[in-house]
Every structure is written in C-alpha cells, then in structure tokens.
Design goal:
heterotrimer; A alpha/beta; B alpha/beta; C alpha/beta; A: alpha/beta; Barwin-like endoglucanases; six-stranded mixed beta barrel; 3 helices; about 20% helix; about 35% strand; globular; B: Rossmann fold; 2 domains; five-stranded parallel beta sheet; 18 helices
Chain lengths: ~120, ~425, ~550
C-alpha cells in the first residue's frame, strides 16, 4: 500500500455503526477469528463518493475522530452521499467517543469522521 | 447416535424463538432446523466441554478462582458489576444480590442499547403489546431506526410481516410496511414504503408527525429531508389503520437526542390511540436484556444504572452507567458477566478495564476476558444450562438445556463468590 | 420449637374469641391446644396488655408480575425518597435486601413492609396466564409472606369460544388446565369482554353487550366462569372486577351484576370504584347506600372496598380502557400492554387530593361501604393496592373505621363541595377490634378457602401478630410488637428480624386430559409461544403449596 499522498482528503463524513450479518456470524466463531476481524474491519461508502474521490473497492482509507484513527478497506454500499457505514465492533469503537450526554449511551451512530487517504 | 430435540429455545436475540429443532451428536449440536443464521451460530459453535478458570491467563482450580474474585471485590472501594444480558434471570437475580450486598454499582447492557428507551418510557409512558397481537391484528407496521432483517432475522416471518392471523388472514398481503431509516437496508428492501431521513433528524420528523396527527399544518415543505406530503401520507395511513405496530431500535437510541427521539415516537404512538389502536415494541436485541430490565426493576425499582453505595438503590443514568464510570475512571474493580464490553464499548471506556482488576464470567473467552485477571468459563443458558428468558415483548420462557454440561452455571458461580465473601 | 403466648387479649373471630385473655401455643409452625404441649420446653412470650390476632391476610393487592413491574419502571419518581436500606438482622449474619418505592415498592421492600404491618399472607390481584411465570419469579423475591395469584380469564379467547359454542364442560376443563399451567389460585374476571373490545378501540357498558369477534356477552362470561368455579370446587370464589369502573352512574351495572349472581357465590373487588351514583355527564354522587343495600341482602356476595387514600399513587389494572381513560383525564404518562388472546391492561400515576371534589367523594364512598355493609364477614379492607393507595396506609383506614371523631376531623378537611349532603357525618358506627380482625384476616382467609389461616384454633398455621393496645389505632396497626410466620418470629417492634422463604399457594383442579389436544391446537394457532413452553412447572416454584379443591 503506497504512502504517497495523491491528495489529502480530510473530508467530513457521517459515520453509522451497526450490525451486519457477517459481523454477527463472525462473533459466533469468536472475536479473534479471521471471519470476525474481516467482518468488522471495513467501511462502506456510496459509489458516488468513491468515484468522486477516486477510491477503488478494497483500498484502505483512514478515518479520524478526536478519539483515534483507524485504517480499513472501503467497499461500495447502498448509502446516501456523505455517509459511511461500519459494522459495530472493536475497530469502529476506536472512533466512538465516551461522551454519553448524561444518558449512559455513547454516540454510536451519526457522528462525524474525517476521511483521508493513507 | 444422534438425538433430535424439539422446541429448543434460541436465546440469541429478543425474538426468543422456541420452535427450534436441534440434532445433538456426541454432546454437540450438529444441525438445527428453523434457526436463523444467528441461532445456528449460537447452537453449533458452542462446545460444552468444561474448561478451567484462568487467573492472569493461567489455569487454576475453581476454588482458587472464586477466592481471587472474592479478594478483588473485597479490596475494591467502588466495584462495577456489568452485563447481565446473555444469561438467565436466575443468574441476573444473583448479580443484583451481589451488588446489593457489596454496595457496588450495577449496570446492564441496556445502557448501550435501549437505556434511552427506558428513559423515554419513564417520561411519557409506553403503549405496547405482545408479538401475537401484531401477528393477529396489525395491518400496519412501522419500523423506525431498526433493521430486523439483520438483527432479528425471523422477526418478519415469525411475528410481524408474514404471519397469517385472525384479522390478517392473508398475511403479508393484508399488511402495509413502512421503514424509516437514514440509509437503505435489507429491511427497507422488503418494505412497501421506505422513508429516508437525514441523519440526526429523527426528533424533528417525529415532532412534525405528531403535529400532523393532530390535524394541524406545518409551515414548511420538508423536514429531515422528507417532503411534508410524504409524512402526511404516513400519518393518514397510521390514523386509518385497524391496529398499528411500530418497532424501534438503535437508530433512535444511539443518535443525537437519544431518549428524546424515543420520547417523540412513544408520544406519537400514544396519541394515535385517539384515532385507532396503536402499539410500539422496542426491538430488544441482546439475548435476555429484557429479563435484566425486569429483574433490576423488581428488585431495585430501576432498570439499569444503579448504585448501592449508600445501602439502597440509587438511579443514575449518565452517572452510574458503565461507559461513564469507566471513562471517568470511577470504579476500581469490575465483574463483567454475559457481555463483552471490550468489543462493544468505545475504546476510551473499554481500555480502562485493562487498568483495574477485572473478572469475566462467560461461556466463551471473549475480548474482555483476554485482558481480565480472572476468567470463569460457565455454561451457556439455553444450550447446556436451563434458565428463564424474557422475549422483547416481556413474555418469559423457561429454556431447557439440549446438551449435557460439566460446567457450572452463572448463578452458581455468583453464589460461590458471595459465599466466599460471607455475604450470604 | 414451641412457643407459648400468654396473658394477651385474643381476637379470633372464626373461633368466636372476642378479646378474651387466652393462651396461644405454637409447635413446629402450627397452632396447637394447650393440652398437647409440654409447657416446660416452651419459649414464653408475656403478652400482658397486648392484643393478639392471626396474621393479616390481604385478599387483593398488586404486588408481583408484568403490570406491577411496568409500574415500578414507569415511576422512578415513586422510588426516589422512598428507599429502604439493607440491614443486618439482629443476632445474625444475615442482611436484608434494600429496595425502593412508595406506591409501587420493589419486591423485597413489599415483603418487609407487609410483614412489619403484621400481614403474613397476600394475594396478587391479577395475573395474565401467559405471564404467570413472571408473577412467580417475583413471588420468589417476596420472602416471608405466603402469596398466590388470581388468573385473568374474563377476556380469554378460548373460554369465549367455548361459551359461544355452548361447550361449557370444555371451558371447565380448560380453566382447570389453565390453573394448573399457571400455578394460580383462582379465577379473576376483569371487565369481561371490555378488554377484548378495547383492542378495537371499543368497550362494553352493559352486561348484554357483545364482545367483538365472539358474539358472547359479559353476563355469559360471568355466569360460565362462576359455574366453572363451583364445578372445580376451587377454594376461593370468582373474583370479579365488573363493568364501567370509575364512571359516573356505574352503580347501576354494579347492582345488576351483583343481583345477577342469583345467589351464586362471588367476590366483588374494589367495590368503591364501582359504586358511583348519578349519571354520565352529571356531577358524581355516592351510590354506596344502594350497593351496600344489595350486599346486605345477598349473603352469597363478599366485597373488598378499595378505599381511597389522599396521596400520589399509581393505578394499574387489566382494564385497559379504564387506564386509557384515566390517562386522557389526567394527562399523566400511560403504559398499556395488550396481551395476545387473553387480556390487556395499563398503568398510570394518579394523585388523590382531598380538595378535589371527585376524589373526596371517592373517599366518602369507600367509607360508606364499610359503614353501611352490616356484616363484616362480607366486607374486607383493601386499597386495591396501589390503585386507591398503598397498602402501607391500611392502618390509617383502621383508624378511620374505629374512631368516628377522627373520621369527623378528616371529613371536615375534605372538599366543601363533597361535604355538602354527604351521608358520612350521619354514620356513627365504629368498628370494634373484633370486626377489624374479621375484615383484615378472619373474613378474608375464610373467603379464600384457606382453612389454616386467619384464625388461631388448633391446626392453624402459626401466623400470629401481637399488637400493643394503643388508643391511636393507626400507630397500633403500623408497628406490631411481634409477628410470627409459621411459628418463627419474623418481626419485632415493627421491624423484620428474620428472613425466610414464604410459600406460593396454588390449586391443581382435575380435568379431563382429552382437552389438552384442543388446547395445544389453540395455543399453536393463537399464540406466539409453543404449547410446551406455556405452562409454569412445579419445580419453578421453590416453595409451592397446593391448596386442595373440594369437588362436591
């Protein structure tokens, strides 16, 4: 994977995390299983955004929040523009903040991330 | 020689299907019938072989492990007991008892799931029903911020969309289904109508629906990216149905507004009862979390986020909820049962568990167990241990084991810890 | 283990003991005659100057199950400020459990509060059969007390089907099966047909209205279930919450329903809510005199009052339409649960204020029922906890009944509108301690068919409460000096001193096993759980006690 920066994106997207079938099935195999790790280390993006940003399927991108950054491959998802989806789990949770607005519930869905090519 | 067991109970999700046939061979489940992919995974991946408990990753005897747990909890000033989801009410009762006798904080996975739903119910109430009312009466279904096709895979076929019922003799044909979400999903694919809203706008859209339901006009063309006309159509459909059923999930509880979003939906459902009959069922997901709610409530008065530090239960969402406690470093020991916060909590909270002595009670050595000081491998309720479970609509079923077990049950381990601490 | 209680004044109405100084002996958990004991080995209690009664028996209270727990969850506001700390028991390592709640206390707090008031048996007013397991789970966490639950049947689809098809023998076998499957104690009827109709946004208002989809009437449902009760020889009688609860003018349907029993045994619950005179749209007035008159003429009828307490409480019933109406009236948060093929119900908070004319008249109605029904064996003390008020306020009601001056004082503080033309000032009657013993234990136990409870004759369970003889009856009944349960001292000076499991009382009437095939078919078609998982198994009760049926 090339580290050469073609273009620094740093574009903001809204990230939704949630269940997927593969993530759930991977869970049954164990969270150290290849199936699970692969299931939770991925990002879905709309094909329109992927085309616009010149990203190919399977390429890695970096996602940043104030908490941390992660690197994951991108796949075409049936999503509106400006939205990303990641399966719930330990990879996505590195980006989720601990603020619960006094309710106990962090913001697992609908928070802003910055996207950059690695 | 394999055996067939009928009417086994799948304890994976809030559907609590009790019509599963399992084929058992050599004490392993080798085949299932009627189980969804999640149920199949639960039944077939489980190995009931007894395992030894671990302290710092090394095998020890059960006596040593229990003694270490007792020591950790005795030396803690503010221990946290967390989880309680994928276990029976028999075990949940013991967990609450331990917290009470210790003066600990106890929280359940509700806090990162339907805790906001509980807060909404406590503010405005909840008009609900059992799933059979949906199967037999509901001619209109509204799924808001949830994706049963992925999270509760037999929901459509067993309870909501497909079943032929007393007043719904043609099943699917007699029903209208709406899905409201921020993106198309496997569930929206099977809906008659999909309303896509902008992320973070559930509150505004629901408020407008309430206004329209009261027959008032809204001075706008759209809200949350949805045309008012489309919302008016939904409202008319809701007011004109025979029996409406709404289902809601994390799309409301995990987004901006949290419980306030749910409050708007619950208020809308209550108000629709002026015109017709309408109910809402929260899509409880994680195994027996509905049971944990019930047990916590009948024993303490509160469904989650309870501190016993003063000698009596105190309710504190935001204060005694696990993510907050861990993020602020306010607890000095943790007993995690029937859940995996290392995988499901924000990293900033999960990593704190590695800094304090942590005990994990679970059938599998999950992510939390890997960094825990003590791991106690117990039986899996519904597979090799019996137990009472509550469905998402609060109907309870007693699940009998389908394979033999050499493992202790969660409730026995918790009792053992209390006995070691001379608490009971 | 032998206990001798001597020098105390005993009130044991079943055995006609009215304040005699008498000895009570308890051996191995049972009351025995003095002649049967070796007094030298007894632990003696000198009850000189004290009053001895059987342990209290509450015939109708909502303490356990889905609806009650929804009420607890709904009301963290009811819990805050009403906490009970866990406590170490004297001379023991044991520590009681903590709890919260004023009108909807958590399970342990419920148990301790009842016991600390001298009650030893409490009957849960209503349990949907499909959720009986939940009721029993909560019972397991209500220690010390003996308890049982009435099973809701008045809107049950299969029963209504059998009635429509004129197959009452099958209905009888199904009811017997259902009581076995739910480990229930008796038949409960709530707004028969009305709860089903509410699922269509309708109700019933007359005994001959039709139930949608079944074409049967409330009258038929009551008649059939009361015939079944008799056929099965159940220890209790049909426990009835009739039509039009809470509505102006409902005394008319209540009167019709009472008379409609035509001499058959029945118990009408929280009658205060059913005794409103006047008419819809007009100001409410009391219908207690008319209703009391009918009760007096019909010795086959017993009632419990459901006396209003001026406080902030929580209403909860299986009567779905009533709860919805109350929500619309008060604007308070509303919980509703429609239960498939069986019943429904709801919860909503409610404040009874003495300055509110309607609440004040409700309060008057309850007291009038107590004072106008002549025979204390026909009228029992309840608040339909928590609907009219929390059970912890029973001592207040006892004071109102035994002290007419106090009653007058409280009367003068209620809404002036309600005071105008009220009957209460003319009612001089004061209940004696003997009569209080009837309406809180002897009468209720008898009506429940609990032969070993509510009295202190030989063979009775060793459930005994000893009170100080205080002029202030509210204080007296709030803090008994001693409470024994099965001959074990469980409370002293108004505080729990020993915690042990109580029994769950249930019945197992016989039925023709052929009925199971039809029931299986019904459950598989109409419910969303399997026939196999529907019943509560005996081993799910850690301390179950079967009470026999007496088929004639």
């Amino acid at each position: 994977m090339t580290k050469r920066r073609i273009r620094a994106l740093r574009e903001k997207f809204v990230l939704i995390t949630g269940r997927t079938t593969k993530q759930a099935i991977g869970m049954h195999k164990g969270k150290e299983s290849e199936a699970y790790i692969r299931a939770v280390t991925r990002v879905d993006m709309s094909d329109h955004d992927m085309d616009r940003l010149g990203i190919n399927e399977g390429e890695d991108i970096l996602l940043y929040t104030l908490e941390d950054s992660i690197e994951a491959p991108v796949f075409k998802g049936n999503l509106p523009e400006g939205m990303l989806f990641m399966p719930m789990g330990p990879v996505a949770n590195r980006l989720v903040g601990v603020d619960t607005s006094g309710k106990g519930m962090p913001s697992y869905k609908g928070f802003l991330v910055e996207v950059e090519r690695p | 020689m394999s055996t067939l067991i009928e009417n086994a109970v799948c304890t994976f999700c809030g559907c609590l299907c009790d019509d599963i046939t399992v084929e058992v061979d050599n004490n392993r489940i080798v085949k299932t019938k009627r189980a969804c992919a999640n149920g199949r995974g639960l039944f077939m991946e489980y190995d009931a072989t007894p395992r030894k408990p671990l302290i710092y990753g090394k095998e020890v005897s059960w006596e040593e492990a229990i003694a270490e747990c007792a020591s950790i909890l005795e030396n803690a000033d503010n221990p946290l007991i967390y989880g309680l989801s994928s276990t029976s009410t028999e075990a949940q009762k013991k967990a609450v008892e331990l917290a009470d006798r210790l003066g600990a904080v106890i929280d359940t996975t509700s806090s990162v799931c339907h805790g906001p739903t509980a807060l909404a119910m406590q503010t405005v109430g909840e008009a609900t029903c059992t799933l059979g009312e949906v199967s037999h009466r509901a001619d209109l279904l509204v799924f808001w911020g949830c994706n049963p096709a992925v999270s509760h895979m037999r929901h459509f076929s067993r309870y909501s969309l497909m079943p032929k019922g007393k007043l719904v003799p043609n099943g699917r044909k007699d029903r209208s289904m709406y899905v409201v979400d921020v993106r198309p999903t496997a569930s929206s694919k099977v809906a008659d109508h999909f309303i896509q809203i902008k992320p973070g706008s559930d509150y505004e859209v629901l408020t407008v629906l309430r206004v329209l339901a009261q027959g008032k006009k809204v001075d706008a063309d759209q809200v949350g990216g949805v045309a008012i006309e489309q919302l008016q159509q939904l409202v008319d459909r809701m007011k004109g149905c025979r029996y409406g059923a709404a289902f809601m999930g994390m799309g409301l509880t995990m987004t901006r507004g949290r419980d306030i979003n749910v409050r708007e939906l619950f208020s809308l459902v209550s108000e629709l009862n002026k015109f017709t009959r309408f109910s809402v069922i929260p899509m409880r997901g994680h195994s027996n979390v509905a049971g944990a709610d019930q047990v916590m409530t009948w024993q303490t008065g509160y469904p989650f986020a309870v501190s016993f530090a003063r000698g009596y239960p105190q309710y504190g969402p935001g204060e005694f909820t696990a993510v907050d406690l861990l993020a602020r470093g306010e607890v000095d020991a943790a007993l995690i049962i029937a859940s995996d916060p290392a995988a499901h909590f924000p990293r900033g909270a999960a990593e704190y568990l590695e800094q304090i002595p942590t005990i994990v009670i679970d059938p599998e050595k999950n992510m939390t167990a890997k960094a825990a000081r003590v791991f106690l491998p117990t039986a899996c309720c519904g597979i090799d241990a019996p137990g009472t479970y509550y469905r998402m609509d609060n109907i309870s079923i007693y699940a009998r084991p389908v394979v033999a077990s050499g493992r202790p049950r969660d409730e026995d381990v918790l009792t053992g810890i209390m006995e070691a601490m001379k608490l009971c | 283990m032998l206990i001798g209680i001597i020098n105390g004044k005993v009130y044991d109405p079943k055995n006609n003991v009215d304040g005699e100084i008498k000895e009570i002996w308890i051996r191995d958990g049972k009351v025995v005659s003095a002649g049967d004991v070796d007094q030298s080995r007894a632990e003696m209690i000198d009850a000189a100057g004290l009053i001895i009664m059987p342990g209290g028996v509450d015939i109708h209270s909502h303490i356990a199950g889905g609806k009650v727990n929804a009420g607890r969850k709904l009301r963290p506001d009811d819990s805050r400020g009403h906490e009970r700390k866990r406590m170490q028991l004297p001379q023991s390592r044991r520590v009681t459990r903590s709890g919260t709640g004023f009108s909807v206390p958590s399970t342990f707090k419920t148990a301790y509060s009842y016991v600390e008031m001298g009650y030893t048996t409490v009957m849960e007013g209503a349990s949907p059969p499909l959720m009986a397991r939940h009721t029993h789970e909560e019972f397991e966490d209500i220690p010390i007390l003996d308890k049982g639950g009435y099973i809701l049947m008045g809107n049950n689809h299969l029963i209504m089907d059998y009635i429509r098809r004129d197959e009452r023998e099958k209905a009888r076998d199904y009811v017997a099966w259902l009581l076995n499957a739910t480990k229930g104690y008796g038949i409960k009827i709530v707004n028969p047909g009305g709860v089903e109709n509410f699922k269509y946004k309708k109700n019933v208002t007359e005994l001959d209205d039709k139930v949608i989809g079944f074409d049967v009437t409330p009258r038929q449902i009551i008649e059939t279930l009361s015939w079944i009760n008799d056929e099965l020889g159940l220890p209790h009688v049909p426990h009835i919450h009739g039509l039009n609860l809470g509505l102006n003018g409902n005394f008319l349907t209540t009167a019709e329903t009472l008379k409609g029993m035509e001499g058959r045994q029945a118990h009408f619950t929280h009658l205060q809510f059913m005794s409103y005179g006047g008419r819809m749209g007009k100001p409410v007035r009391s219908g207690a005199a008319e209703i009391a008159g009918i009760v007096n003429e019909n010795p086959n009828i017993t009632v419990d009052v459901g006396q209003i307490i001026f406080c902030d409480t929580t209403t909860m019933t299986a009567d779905g339409p009533v709860q919805y109406r109350l929500h619309k009236l008060t604007g308070n948060k509303w919980f509703n649960d429609d239960v498939e093929a069986e019943t429904g119900g709801g919860v909503t908070p409610c404040i009874y204020k003495k300055s509110n004319p309607f609440n004040a008249i409700q309060w008057l109605i309850g007291l009038e029922l107590f004072l106008l029904i002549d025979d204390p064996w026909q009228v029992f003390l309840t608040t339909d906890h928590p609907n009219a008020g929390p059970f912890t306020c029973y001592p207040q009601i006892i004071k109102l009944l035994t002290d007419r001056d106090f009653r007058g004082e409280v009367f003068s503080g209620i809404s002036k509108i309600a005071q105008k033309g009220a009957l209460l000032p003319e009612l001089d009657r004061e209940y004696s301690l003997y009569e209080i013993a009837v309406i809180t234990r002897a009468g209720t136990a008898q009506r429940l068919g609990l032969d070993n409870k509510g009295h202190l004759g030989a063979g009775a369970d060793g459930d005994v409460t000893i009170y100080a003889d205080l002029d202030d009856r509210e204080k007296m009944f709030s803090h008994p000096a001693y409470v024994f349960k099965d001959g074990v001292l469980v409370a002293k000076d108004g505080r729990v001193v020993c915690e042990r499991p109580g029994n769950t009382l249930y019945v197992s009437p016989d039925f023709n096993p052929d009925i199971e095939k039809e029931i299986r078919g019904h459950i598989e078609s109409n419910y969303t759980i399997s026939f196999d998982h529907y019943p509560v198994r005996r081993d799910e009760l850690s301390q179950g006690k079967q009470i026999p049926c007496e088929v004639s």
